[in-house]
Amino acid sequence: MEIYPDIPLQQIDAVLEKSQQAFDTYRQVSLLKRAELLRAIASELEEIGDAWIQVAHQETNLPEARLRNERARTIYQLESYGQACAEGDWMRISIDTAFPNRNPPRPDLRKMMIPLGPVVVFGASNFPYAYSTAGGDTASALAAGCSVIVKAHPAHPETSAMATAAIRRALEKCGLPIDTFQHVYGASNEVGKALVQHRYTSAVGFTGSFNGGKQLFDWANQRPHPIPVFAEMGSVNPIFLLPEQMGLEAESLAEKIAGSVILGVGQFCTNPGLLFAVEGDSLLHFKNKLKALLQSVAPAPMLHTGIKDNYQSSSTEWRAKAGVSTLVASVEQPDLCVTPQLTETSLNRFIQDSSLHQEVFGPATLLVVCPTLSDLLVAAAHIEGQLTCSVFGTPAELSAQSGLLQILQTRCGRLNFNMVPTGVEVVQSMQHGGPFPATTDPRFTAVGSDAILRFVRPISYQNCPDDLLPDELKSANPLQIWRKIDGAWSNDSVR
Asked: Total structural domains in the chain?
């Protein structure tokens, strides 16, 4: 493997200068041209073939089958964001025509979204395709009309280099400024800080740990002119198990949850790290089954040494905490391999010790036993912001637990019913984001075409001559996109 050194700090200014220059051109490119670029990137990634799979497998230890699925998702993201870009719904276009005879007269007002500027993207270690160089942050920023600088994740530098080459080939084929997309290496905090705090950087996208995301957020807010940061930082994705459903399906629930805990060796941002259940015989049955399933799981490799070491140290710390009992202990393994862990505590202890609320990145989950059904509401009130919350219950139970559901709505971006949280569909209705500390901004999503909204801002034109308006706002609607005109959706011209 080639060695990729950190970019010298003195070169970062030149990178951002090029990005700003490219942005000045790219921001004026039509929606159809941006969509063409995204489709071209998808095509170039497909052309790489299995060589990309093999390199990613060598760098990350992820199974080839998993990587093939992730590659397909990445290509689909690019194509779907391209389609959304061309359709223009995300631009939230509204036109309120003039009322000259009103007293006072109402001016003609037309509003749309415009790109922010150069976006710096920090990719994730656990998704070398879908949340990395050519992933959702890059795709949505390009769809928005922004230039992009990706800081490659040090866990898969060659995988990132291959994606970069594909993106730049697509830019050349589309006749667009080559520096619309740039790629740098840098494992040091100094590189990250310099990128975030550069005067031309207009927004940041990040997927990773809480500490990493919070640091980028703080750097962005220390600037003379703060910039938006969308950092997806971590989540324990609690599952609430209602007793009637557990009594009916204790074993199948255990099987579903065990599969979710160990999926990808627990290296998913939607891994269920907390389970809440009511004390009773059905819970005992569920617990014994879950314990047996996790004990039978063969050791599996994590992404790299740093993640494994953090998992092992965190697992050991949890087993030593007061009031925590170990049902399945993670056993030290050679190389990068680990085994699952299952621990248990009381609701009172969970409330008293906030460290039990934190994510253990890996195949580990904590069962919190609640004395009564009403205590589930107490538990819900004490959890922090999450990407997801899940509830398993019969129809009657769910109807009776409106209070619990109301609390959970305030704690998460996606509320699952009788489904485990792992698995994120790339569709318009997906919300992949949640209240702090899951993300730095719960108003946005990192998945689905609404992700484009992270990298744009609104602008309103008042009494602007039609020939000076962007095509999106012209009265004749040359792009034939849907717009809200005087309160009604239409793709007709303004009369």
From this structure: 2
